[in-house]
Amino acid sequence: MRMIIDAHGQYFPDQETFAELARQVNHDMRSPLAAICTYAECLAWLTTLDMPAREKYAKAIIAEARRLGRMGSYFASLAAPPPDSDLQEIMLGEVVDEALEELGDLLELQEIELTREADEAPLPLIWARPILRQIMLAAIETQMEWAGHGAHLNLSTAVENENLFLRIVATSERPLTFDTSRFGYRSARALLQSHGGNMSLEAEEGLLCLQVPYIGRMRVASSEDLLERSA
Q1: Of 45, 160, 187, 221, which alpha carbon lies 20 to 30 A from 29's?
Q2: With the C-alpha atoms ordered 168, 95, 181, 63, is the resulting torsion angle positive or negative?
Q3: Residue 118 or 158, more confident
Q4: Separation of CA 188 from chain center
Q5: H/E element, 217
Q6: 19 φ/ψ angles, rounded to the nearest 5 degrees
Q7: Residue 215 DSSP code
Q8: Looking at 51-197, which runs of residues are DSSP E strands?
Q9: 3-class secondary structure, 173
């Protein structure tokens, strides 16, 4: 609550903008809170639950609690953008895998099927790893929310015109609902834009595309390479 009040004065001086954000915070956080309460009440009062059901409900509580924590991070990046982190050589695919591992319990809970195409972007990029990781988490989780329970997500990476791309294509039996006011989507887009990247959405195709700038390679030639070149 103190973070929200501080953000009001520093980052959202306009009353209408702050009120809209506050409504969105209230809306987005109600879902995981309601789920946590429901599963906890089932564990507390339904004495006939067998052990597999109890384990399922306990895992659901953990998944929703982690989801709630991530929402706090997404809001914080909007209210108070993080300072620039040190740039380092990283692989886009590795960061995607880290995000998927963290989202694994939520994927299981929502019964979302995921396919991951082989990396077409083996080149490293120079970027801030913590920021890129949060962008990936927010983007993938946002696409999961839009697609809904039992959907299918396909992730692929590619290099185009000195930029690296992550594409997340969602397919679902129900119509996809793209609510770009959710602060998971907004924080990912804001973080990308602040570091020279971009995020686009093609609603009809169910496609969320992240464009990350490729900033050269930090490879130092070995002495053997230099000798071969001089010869």
Answers
A1: 45
A2: positive
A3: 158
A4: 7
A5: none
A6: -65, -40
A7: -
A8: 88-90, 113-116, 125-127, 152-160, 163-171
A9: coil
Q: Distance between CA atoms of 32 and 134, rounded to whole angstroms? A: 19
Q: Tokens standing for 197? A: 């990247």
Q: Give, in degrees to the nearest 5, the angle at Cα 164 between 161 and 166.
A: 130
Q: How many CA atoms lie within 13 A of 79 on its CB side?
A: 22
Burial 145-174 (b: 16+ CB within 10 A, else e): bbbbeebebbbbbebeeebbbbbbbbebee
- At 36, the amino acid letter reads I
Tell me the one-letter amino acid at 87: L
User: Which amino acid is located at 27 in the chain?
Assistant: H
Q: Where does the chain have alpha helices with state H?
A: 2-10, 15-45, 51-79, 92-102, 104-109, 129-147, 183-194, 223-230
Q: Distance between CA 11 and CA 189 in Å, rounded?
A: 17
Q: Which amino acid is at 157?
A: T
pLDDT digits (tens, 9 = 90+) for 90-137: 888 888 899 999 999 999 988 999 999 876 656 678 888 889 999 999
Count the Cβ atoms, other than its own, within 10 Å of residue 191: 23
Q: Please compute the mean of the pLDDT values over residues 81-89 and round it to a whole number.
A: 77
